[in-house]
Amino acid sequence: GVQTCALPLSGSFDMDTRLFSVDSRAGLVDRYVATIAPKDMVVYYKAFGWPLTVTAGEIRVDSEGVRLTGVCAENGDAQLELDGTVDVGLQSVEIDLNFDARNISFTDALHETVPWRIRRKWNDIQPSGSFDVRDGHISFTWQSGDKQPTWNVAGRVELHDAGFDVGARLRNVTGVVTVRGASHGPFSDMTL
Q: Which end of the chain is more exposed for a tag (fewer CB within 10 A), N or C?
């Protein structure tokens, strides 16, 4: 079956919740809509390794799933803007997120969050500096009967004053790298 995970939250938010019944062929069906407006709400998801303070946007939760619109979050100088959907049903889970991230530094904390194959390459090239991700996209799909989920990622990585060890140390690297990756299995098995 589908496993869910809780996201530890702290901070504050405004929430408007509406409960109503809809007439259908099966009789009255209860529905709900909750609209959440974060105000310095801190979300910590262990797999990402660091907390995000959500400062703006709208999170709409209803009978169909979760919709994120204009969600802005930060961790130190790093900033994230996020839109997308999370749909959890009895037979499937689908997550489809679009994002832009700015001022992300190549840190030990980030090193620990990336899939192991990427972490292994990271150890070889010893990156430094910072980057932005533009037009980022991540999707997760699991259907009943699938042994493993399917992950897809894509985006443009804009390097800022980066450094890499490729036999010789490269410094002050600036440029854009287009990234695409997929995994039919755990996110940790992602290949780019």
A: N
